[in-house]
């Protein structure tokens, strides 16, 4: 995680200094991956540190003819467990799958 090209948050900066001061300290972290589940535009993976909540990406994938509901740890779920920009608190790695519903289109026909 230290070699990532993105800016580090204050917490990440503090966590990365722990090994310098305490060389035998192990910092547990987990990778949260996103899967667009048939759509496109899934967010990049994120790193979650032990006992610290992670704010999930606010990026929403798209899929033609579908409405994005949120994220679930099951690719076949019909309801979302997590929302875009929501909080992930589990101390475990996960792949979050986009959960979407089919858009219903109604057409008025005049005879």
- SSE pattern: HEEEEEE
What would you call the quaternary organization? single chain
Largest sheet: 4 strands, mixed
- For the biggest β-sheet, the strand order reads 2-1-6-4
Q: What does the overall shape look like?
A: elongated
**Spatial extent as radius of gyration:** 18 Å
What does this structure look like?
- It is a single chain.
- The protein has 111 residues and is mainly beta.
- The chain contains one helix and six strands; from the N terminus they run αββββββ.
- It is elongated, with a radius of gyration of 18 Å.
- The N terminus is likely disordered.
Structure, briefly:
The chain is mainly beta and 111 residues long. It is built from 1 helix and 6 strands.
Topology diagram in text:
Blueprint lengths: L9 H12 L7 E7 L10 E4 L4 E2 L10 E7 L14 E2 L5 E9 L9
Parallel strand pairs: 1-6
Antiparallel strand pairs: 1-2, 3-5, 4-6
Key traits:
single chain; 11% helix; 28% strand
């Amino acid at each position: 995680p230290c070699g990532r090209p993105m800016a580090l948050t204050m917490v990440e900066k503090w966590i990365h200094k722990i090994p310098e001061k305490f060389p035998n300290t192990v910092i547990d972290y987990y990778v949260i991956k996103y899967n667009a589940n048939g759509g496109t535009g899934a967010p990049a993976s994120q790193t979650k540190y032990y006992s610290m909540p992670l704010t999930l990406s606010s990026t929403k994938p798209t899929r033609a003819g579908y409405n994005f509901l949120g994220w679930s740890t099951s690719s076949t779920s019909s309801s979302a467990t997590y929302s875009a920009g929501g909080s992930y608190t589990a101390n475990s790695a996960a792949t979050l799958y986009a959960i979407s519903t089919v858009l219903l289109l109604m057409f008025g026909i005049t005879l």
